[in-house]
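Summary of Year 1 activities. Much of the first year was spent building the evaluation harness for sequence design. The harness presents a backbone, in tokenized form, and records the residue chosen at every position. We chose the following record to illustrate the format because it has been used consistently in internal testing since the harness was completed.
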């Protein structure tokens, strides 16, 4: 007989799962590269979705003549994206889903390729900060290996005090 383990925790991706911010990523890349003399530049979604700004900056530098330091370029991209997402909208139903999961006694965390500051800001804007354990808000700045590596999700489960096998992940990338 197979033993069914109950789900005790939920880990959510942020961008594209809880908030609709993916198009702003493309806009930020286009605007920043144009500022550096490369008009009309785009990247495929495989190079931007679920990726850190450091990865995006390195990819831009490898595919263009932009010679700006990668850290400076990543910071510029993040700043532009932060401005573009000032009025970020939730994915329909996401705030209600977080509130319902909390009401059911599930532990919640967020694992994102965005920095922790972005996670905190978006959760406030969505009105769900009280649903997500602050210790389980895992940004790219908290881990060594970004997605698709499971490091962030494993850290999220550990910080929630649950076995990863008892955790359900919601991810779009």
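For this record, the design step produced the sequence shown next.
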């Amino acid at each position: 007989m197979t033993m069914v383990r109950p789900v005790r925790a939920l880990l959510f991706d942020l961008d594209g799962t809880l908030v609709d911010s993916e198009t702003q990523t493309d806009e930020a890349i286009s605007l920043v590269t144009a500022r550096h003399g490369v008009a009309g530049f785009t990247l495929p979604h495989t190079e931007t979705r679920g990726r850190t700004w450091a990865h995006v900056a390195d990819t831009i530098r490898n595919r263009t003549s932009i010679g700006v330091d990668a850290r400076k370029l990543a910071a510029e991209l993040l700043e532009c994206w932060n401005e573009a997402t000032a009025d970020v909208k939730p994915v329909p139903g996401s705030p209600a889903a977080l509130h319902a999961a909390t009401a059911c006694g599930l532990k919640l965390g967020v694992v994102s390729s965005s920095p922790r500051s972005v996670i905190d800001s978006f959760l406030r804007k969505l009105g769900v900060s009280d649903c997500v354990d602050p210790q389980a808000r895992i940004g790219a700045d908290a881990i060594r290996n970004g997605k698709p590596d499971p490091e962030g999700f494993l850290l999220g489960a550990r910080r929630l005090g649950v076995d990863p096998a008892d955790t359900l992940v919601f991810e779009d990338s």
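The chain has a mean pLDDT of 94. Quantitative recovery figures across the full test set are reported in Table 2.
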